[in-house]
Amino acid sequence: MFSPSVADGGPATATRSRRRQRPLSSENLPQQPKAKRPRLPLTEQTFVNPDVRHEMIEVKTDKVATRPPNKDNNKDNNNSNNNKEQTENPTPTPRKELNVRAKKSKHGDRAANKGDGSLVLTSTNAYIVSKLPALPDRIRSDWSGNQTADVFSTSGYALTLTATHAIVWPYTSTSQSPETFTFTLPSSSKPTDPLPVGCLVSPSASSTEPGLVVVMAGTGKVVYWESISSAATFAFIKKDRSGVEHVISGMASGEKVVAITNAESAGFILTFNSGRLAYLNVRDSHGRPAISVQFLRNNLSVSTSGIFGSIRHAFSHLTLRGDIAAVRADRSARVGERNVVALTGKGRLQAWKVHRGGHNDIIGEADVREDIVSALQEVDPASKDFPKESFEAIDFAYVPKGLEPKYLELSKLSDAMASDDPTVQHLLLLVSLTRRSSSRYALAEVVLTSTDCHIGMIRPLTSYSTPTSASIDTIQTTRPRLYLPRPALVAFVVFDRAAVLASIAIPPESPDSQLQSDIHILPPSFEDVIDFREDDLHEIVGSGIEETPAIFGHEETRLHRPKTKNPAVVLMVRGAGSVRIATTDIDKFGSDEPPKVSAKSKLEQAVFFGVKQDNPLIFNGRKEITFSKEETAQAALEVSHEILSSTTPYISTLPASLEDNLRARSKALERLMSHLKTTGADLDRKTRWSLLYNAEKMHVAVHLWKRHETFTAARAANDKKSLIGMIVEFIHQDQKHNPVASIGETDRVRHWFVNDTFRLELFVAWAYEVIKTLYKDRLLDDAKVTVMVYEAVQINICTHVSALEFRKNNLSFYGLGLEELRMGILRDGYDDLPEPWTGCHYIANNIKRLVDLSSQWVAKYRGEGEGEKQKGPNQPDPQVIQKIFEDLPLLTDAMLTSVLEYARWAMATPDQKAIAQQFAKVYQEDRIEKPVALAQSGKWDEAASIAEKHESLRALAAILLDHVEELEGKLKQPGLSTSERERLQSIRQAKKAKLETSVGTYGQAFAFPVYELLLQKHGVEDVLNWGLDKHGFKTKFLRSKPELARISWINDVQLEDDVGHGADTLVELALTKEQQVWNKKIELSLGKLALLAEMEESEPNTGVFKVKSDEARNEEKLKKVDDELIAIRIQDQLYSQIFPSTYDAVDEAAALNFAMEAHSMNIPRRQKAQHQVFEDGMKRLLRHEALDAMTLIDLLTLVSLKPESREEIAHPFWLALKVAESNCHSDEKKEAKRLIWRRLFTRDDWAKINDTQLKDDREVVERLADTELYSMLADCIRFQDARSPFRPQPPQEALGAFVDHLDRRFRDFDSNFCTKLMDAMKYEDKILHQYIEKSRLGEWLRTCLSTARVDVESAVDEATKEGAAVSTAEATKSQSLFAGKQNGNTPLFGI
Questions:
Q1: Which of 228, 605, 871, 930 is 20 to 30 A from 192 in CA distance terms?
Q2: Spatial strand order in the sheet of 498-503
Q3: CA distance linking residue 475 with residue 821, whole number of Å
Q4: For the whole model, what pTM was predicted?
Q5: Contact 228/181 with Cβ under 8 angstroms?
């Protein structure tokens, strides 16, 4: 970090950044500065004496180096030292140091500062990470070089070592530029040498400041300053040397000092990269500064070689360089005596009792590798996946002593915690197993005695698995460290860019923990990782702990030690400075509810602390710390809700600028979702929509607050309370957080926006409720109501427009990019989703009412406002009315969208479907009515846009047609200027073009409403003449409407030139839809003509198969038309016989009565059902309705006609047979004929006819000739086809017609009525059966047939004689009228 300032090396010197005032002394002090003279920072350049030649002192390994004596010192010591000195004469180079105060912290930083000036980087319920303010300007200004650091909480100082300097400062200072002691170190022999190692030395008896010892790693030079302040004083008074110096002899080539361990008051231990250890002492036996170093020697025994002879012997079997992982000394209060333990990377431990002066005793050794691996695999099944040979012991710490009894019971560690036996080494080891790119770390308790080694608690670390690549040979600054501060409930593990905080307290008992204990698996306890940025700058270069004091004197008391309530670790982070990780309440770790690492705490850290660019921490989450999908989703929702309600402790509830507060909370929600995306959180669809809804509310709240400020600014000074303020007051106290006036919460509006934004849907809905309540209670005049309505309109428009726009822009950001939105709302897929707040019941209902109110209010006052130049005192402001009018389209669009959104959601919610149908109905009606109403008020373009947006094509058609009609009306007005006429014509042309384009775009869905409206308003002519349809939808429209068939066939013939389809239309209309017989006759006739015309057109192509098939179909249609025309002619003839009986009737009812009296005598009185059927048929006949075949047959076979009718029409039964043959359905034709013959056979009394007693032949023949059977047979013979002679049906075959079932007319009739009607049929069957059995009806039938044939032939002969021509003409006429088609092969009556 700092380049050497001396080219060729030089002595160690010291400066202090600020002079500390010391007690006045009359000796050896420079002249004091003048009064009020500003103090300048002191640098090493300030007091450089270029004439002084510094000396380097080399001390043998068996001698002690002392500071050069004063003149008063004894001569023996002086001579001894002079024999060991070698003087070097370096050429000093001026060194400069400029102390610069750090910038003042930003407002945001100051807001997050704690009382001690530290800046909170993150916090949870378990710990707080804060950046300490104190940092030397020299370090802050340049982080580029290599450095290592240590923190000494016992003295309150931190030490940083670079290749050229040692810097000491009070790290707990609240000043950003603390008092700093800078020591210039001797130069290294090589630029590639490791960094020096150093340690603060406990203060001497004459000083309260600690000393400093530094060992140059490559050269072995040792420099000791007895006091950091006195060292600076030496430099200040330009003394030759300010520290005791020494060079370690006996170092092998390439051997480097890599670590120093404080074992005071016994001394220090040096670790070399070769695996050798050395003892270092900085004071002689009299407590004076003197440096002595002793190396291990292979040939020294335990009793003669001092401390590290035994250590050398213990580790002599090791061949790997740098195998020693750590050397630690206990924190005993014994004076001049410490226990020291060395740990190798392979898990071998050795312990000594070290005495001041170098004497030592081995008190224990053991190889714990196998035992730890076995115990780890037993309690941590995941470690079995790692190879045993990858085991590595990384670091260890002594378990602290002097704990309160309660902590002894709360810790997982063994009972050795309570032991004061100095021969028992109670240790906690950090070990690891590695597999490829992953490591499994664990904390292992080891109790080492002189005769045994016991493995206690095994605590796996599951939250961190990054392998460590550091080795003692290479990067000593990144080697992990383990700390176990008092009260031994939480351990800190410090890596190069992370720190792990792990609880070793006993977890509370639970069924799960008991089960895990039974199977030797440790229940989970608190463990979290604090990650630092992984870049080239940030790196943990040193650390130290702060812990609570012991309850009795196990450690020396330090006067400047910081007071600590909860244990902490202090990290020196390159690029950041001093960072403290402190537990918030150490006792909570051992409580029944210990802190937990939750998904919510991780989200809070990322959202509220990850925002700052200068935060050295990162919160992207580690793969080792995972949470369930449900827990993550619930945590996200809780954090989101707390942001909206300001219930999180990380957001201020008393902002100076509410807009800034709302924007900051909106940004926090954005960071929440961004973090969830970055970490790949698997959120369900419901959670994502809920988070999006919350973000929308926060976004809208910003705009509403700005609207509130606008409303307030626009109001008069005596009326500053806007609608937003009234809404807050009107909301029920149970639906908001009520401000507490006694603590100064007086601004209700700000209080609501801070605490109740999550209830924004209620707020928006209350905009209408406030107006309704105040107007109903007559508390406002119309002018104030108008302003209220305007503000309510603005609130609703602002809410919907900004919310839906935010939703559309952020859908993909919230992981909902595949959702289908239209108009800002989901098309479908509302199942299991929360109620959309923009379309909730409250908002949808009240915005609908607000639209109605606004429309009525504008309609009431807009016309008046236009005519008034000045408004009255309580009259609405015309300008405000106009503003409402201008906003109506946006409000209408928002209303329709909201109502539709709620209807869609409610339809997917089982308990809301009933009300959903109501809202869906309202939407279907309003999406037509509201745009049309807007158009009629003059908002033509806006209305058309809304109709098109909401796919209300009927409304769009109406708006465009009405607009064109209005424009044409204006063009007809006289007196128009040329420019105005051209403008109107241009608009009309644009609207016509829009009509034509819409027909092509939307097709039938748009064209059909156009034609319906044209037909409704202007009639058939406009439909047929409308020429903007270029796609043939007019024909489709006419053909799709059966009721428009009378128009459709005209369109087919005239415009489509499709005679065939016109014929089909007419025939289909006549056969299926037409109710009036006269219309039916005309339609059939026209259809027949069209068919004949089509057949005539297709005659030239008769050779084509397709044309032949078409001709066959046309012939079939013609036959059907002819058959229908036969039935119509028969109905007309029957009507002509019935009508004379109704001449005297005054109305339809009277006509029916007269007809029934005259023509229903053939129905027995007791057959009520049959009588009712006949009456119904008679009523329809008199109304000229087109009768179906069976009804007409009933009338013909049951009617009673006068005898003279025989001269006017054919026999009714013969006509009935004609109807049955031509018009009955195929499945009923046979039954209909049987019914006709049965009624014919039962019309006459054959019992009387069969009784020929006392009657002559003439009388029998005359009586037979008067029967209905004879007359009917005569007509059948008279009109028969010569190629198919007539054959009557035998009486036996007429039995059973419609006895068991009725024809299709009675399918939906009441069963009782059908039963009665079938009884009538059975009665007819009974009479016929009697005539057959007892009156010889069969024989009489043959007799009548032969008699009728003879009579008909005789009549024909006679007619031939009288006038063959006339007879032939009449016969031809009769055949053409009744015989039907004569050129076929099918007989008329195939009986």
A1: 228
A2: 481-483, 490-494, 498-503, 527-532, 617-618
A3: 57
A4: 0.73
A5: yes
